[in-house]
Specification:
six-stranded antiparallel beta sheet, two-stranded antiparallel ribbon, mainly beta
C-alpha cells in the first residue's frame, strides 16, 4: 500500500498534543497505519540495570502517531502539504505536492 510518508521524511504534525511540531520519520508501520517520529510523542519507560544500561532508571522512547495526523514538509514553503502521485516518462511513480514541487 502506498503511503504519503516514508522513512527519513521530514513531517509536520497537524493535530493532537504535538500540533505544529516537525520531526524526522524513524519508522513506518503500514499495516497499522502508524509512524514513529524522532523526538515527538515521548513516553517514559522503566528499565532494569543491564549491560546496555548499567544504571537502569527511566528512559524516554518515541511512541507511534497515526499516519493521518502527519503531513510531509514541503522544502519550498517549510510547511506540511498534501501529496499526490504522478508517473514520469520512465514510468516511475513520484510523490508530488499540490503546488507541483517533487519530494
Amino acid at each position: 500500500m502506498a503511503l504519503h510518508v516514508k522513512k527519513n521524511d521530514t513531517i509536520e504534525v497537524i493535530c493532537g498534543a504535538h500540533k505544529g511540531a516537525t520531526g524526522r520519520v524513524l519508522k513506518v508501520m503500514p499495516q497499522k497505519k502508524l509512524v514513529v517520529v524522532q523526538g515527538l510523542n515521548l513516553a517514559k519507560k522503566h528499565v532494569r540495570p543491564s549491560r546496555k544500561s548499567p544504571q537502569g532508571g527511566r528512559i524516554s522512547i518515541e511512541q507511534p502517531i497515526h499516519i493521518s495526523n502527519v503531513l510531509p514538509v514541503n522544502t519550498k514553503t517549510s510547511k506540511g502539504g498534501r501529496v499526490g502521485y504522478k508517473v514520469n516518462k520512465e514510468g516511475r511513480k513520484k510523490r508530488v505536492f499540490a503546488d507541483g514541487h517533487e519530494i
